[in-house]
Amino acid sequence: MPHFAHVSLILAPDRSKLSKRHGATSVGQYREMGYLPEAMNNYLALLGWGDGTENEFFTLDKLVERFTIERVNKSGAVFDSTKLRWMNGQHLRARPSEEVTKLIGERWKTSGFLTVSEGPFVEELISLLKDGIDLITDADKVLSNLLSYPLHSTLQSEEAESAIQDNLPEFCASFLAAYDSGDLVGALEEGQAGWKNWVKGLGKSTKRKGKSLFMPLRLLLTGKLHGPDIGAAVVLLYQAGTTGVIAPEVSFVTIDERVKMLREINWETLSKDHVVKETASTV
């Protein structure tokens, strides 16, 4: 005969009894939200139980091997949705790479971002972005962020102040001259190796290196001050604009279009605006 036992109540963050008002309550809802079965098993097993170590990542087989009724706690356990999301990310990245690629690639095609669900472009895209994906549904947001080009809003932000004051207009002119020569496009055709060589040459010609070189480059090419590896990102952005893998419905700004936008910036007015903001903030 099997033996049954009750574990303690699962509590909400406010330590009240967990109920519908605290969010999703069925397995089906969590599946629709992008949670994996193995992550749910792992997390639920740790609500009121532990194996006596700091380890929190368990496969189902390992849970069966390590579980003992003696280590079940009597006090209620708090359901932490942030912890569950983190754990789902661990299990997602623990799956075979080809399986993760298939899941995310199909997601992007179904969501209308890509015209393909597999191939070298998709594989490199996932390799670049996977650390920011804890749920399959997160894939849409991270790809949308990579493809976006919020140049003007970033330039108007206070965070961009230091980059603008570091002779960004002059650096932009050097960048545009390098682009007009055809060297950048030729480098991007060669992939990341070509990009690295091109950046090295630009650094020498502008007498910049490290942050003073890569920060303005990231800003001009991606429209952002932060993001994944700049080399891998720019190569993928170039490919996205030349291979037809981005669905027509996506408002994607190609590298050529980004360069056109850079030519239209009134750097003098922008610099004056930042000076006014800085003066106002000190008054």
TrEMBL record:
What one GO molecular function would you report for this record?
Answer: aminoacyl-tRNA ligase activity
Family per record:
Belongs to the class-I aminoacyl-tRNA synthetase family. Glutamate--tRNA ligase type 1 subfamily.
Q: Which domain of life is it from?
A: Eukaryota
Database matches in SUPFAM superfamilies: An anticodon-binding domain of class I aminoacyl-tRNA synthetases, Nucleotidylyl transferase
Keyword Aminoacyl-tRNA synthetase carried by entry: yes
Aminoacyl-tRNA synthetase class I anticodon-binding domain span? 117-237
Supply the name of the protein: Uncharacterized protein
The Glutamyl/glutaminyl-tRNA synthetase class Ib catalytic domain is annotated at 2-86
The alphabetical list of record keywords is: Aminoacyl-tRNA synthetase, ATP-binding, Ligase, Mitochondrion, Nucleotide-binding, Protein biosynthesis, Transit peptide
Tell me, which GO biological process terms does this entry list?
Answer: translation; tRNA aminoacylation
Q: Pfam family of this protein, just one?
A: Anticodon_2
Q: Where are the transmembrane segments?
A: none
Q: Which InterPro entries match?
A: aa-tRNA-synth_I_cd-bd, aa-tRNA-synth_I_codon-bd_sub2, aa_tRNA-synth_I_cd-bd_sf, Glu/Gln-tRNA-synth_Ib_cat-dom, Glu_tRNA_lig_a-bdl, GluQ/Sye
